[in-house]
Specification:
Elements: E1 2-6, H1 12-17, E2 24-27, E3 30-35, E4 38-45, E5 48-53, H2 56-62, H3 69-77, H4 82-90, H5 101-111, H6 116-130, E6 133-136, E7 139-142, H7 147-153, H8 155-160, H9 167-180, H10 190-197, H11 205-214, H12 226-235, H13 243-254, H14 258-270
Antiparallel strand pairs: 1-5, 2-3, 3-4, 4-5, 6-7
Helix pairs in contact: 3-4, 4-14, 5-9, 5-11, 7-9, 10-11, 12-14
This protein binds a DNA duplex (13 and 12 nucleotides) through residues 19-20, 108-109, 111-119, 121-122, 159, 162-167, 169, 201-207, 210, 223-228, 243, 266, 270.
DNA sequence: GCCCAGGAGTGCA
DNA sequence: TGCACTCATGGG
């Protein structure tokens, strides 16, 4: 099954390399993208971006294809902040993904005080160890493990996978999710959702914002990490040092566009745009 | 060998 | 509440 979309506002490289997803790799003419137990081959063909996948309905939602990003780009530029204007223009094909909630929760627990290449490696080893082996377009891949699998693994497994001190966070949080599920979080307003996410082991403000943004579609979230702190100082000439207050400043400024703008700024800064 | 990475938990004032 | 300290690991 196949999805076609205007490539101007769907650039696979920018969607995948901007830091919101950890399971993808170069494949064929583009990339192989893995999410939960599904797989997709995405590439540019002329003026179209093509997604060949096992579950078109899932990936239509996953790639956020119902949303008009030309309006988002326009609003981002209207703030007249040089880095933001440059980034929104250069990365107008960046889209925020709607990813699997549990996968986001575990992935961003792993992400704390860590770097992206190593996060990818850890998640990949966890999937190989506990996920199910599948095939798509002649490629073997592993699904993201269920909470049941994760909870049954024990923290020694996470340690061996390279999680370091985060091993106990994953063991405890997966045990809790197995017991309680997370469906009770699905329809909460953003502030209440964040409050609930903060009660999971290994989840602080920044991780909660990422899970809310990428997993629960809370586009008014603005995760603040070391890169964004740098953006705040250098590009917004801000004087605040407390991350909670910096987050509040950005959310007040950008409202429901916060999540999109955070990604433009984060990616632009990392790419030294 | 040092610094840093999409930070968070803990203890103590 | 605020703040310092600590927590594994590997890439640059």
């Amino acid at each position: 099954m196949r999805i076609d979309y205007d490539a101007e506002y769907f650039n696979p490289e920018h969607v995948l390399e901007c830091g919101q997803i950890f399971r993808f790799y170069p494949f064929g003419k583009g990339y192989m993208v893995l999410s939960a137990d599904k797989a997709c081959h995405v590439y540019v063909d002329g003026a179209k971006t093509v997604a060949e996948c096992d579950d078109p309905d899932y990936f239509y939602e996953f790639f956020d294809l119902a949303r008009d990003y030309s309006e988002i780009v326009k609003r981002a530029k209207s703030h007249n902040i040089p880095l933001l204007t440059r980034s929104a223009e250069a990365y107008k094909g960046l889209r925020l993904l709607n990813q699997n909630k549990e996968e986001m929760l575990y992935s961003f627990i792993i992400s704390q005080n860590n770097n992206i290449p190593r996060i990818k490696g850890i998640i990949s080893r966890i999937c190989e160890g506990l996920g199910e082996k599948r095939e798509f377009m002649g490629e073997t891949y592993f699904t993201f493990p269920t909470s049941e699998k994760l909870a049954g693994a024990g923290k020694e497994f996470f340690k061996a996978a390279g999680c370091g001190y985060r091993d106990s966070f994953l063991a405890e949080t997966s045990a809790r999710v197995l017991k309680e599920g997370i469906t009770h979080l699905e329809n909460l307003p953003a502030d209440e959702l964040k409050k609930q996410l903060l009660t999971y082991k290994g989840v602080g403000a920044k991780v909660a914002d990422c899970v809310a943004l990428f997993g629960f579609g809370k586009r008014g979230s603005f995760p603040v990490d070391t890169w964004i702190e740098q953006v705040y100082k250098e590009d917004f000439h801000g004087a605040l040092t407390d991350r909670a207050k910096i987050t509040e400043y950005f959310c007040q400024t950008f409202g429901e566009d916060s999540g999109y703008i955070q990604q433009y700024l984060f990616y632009g800064k990392r790419q030294n745009l």
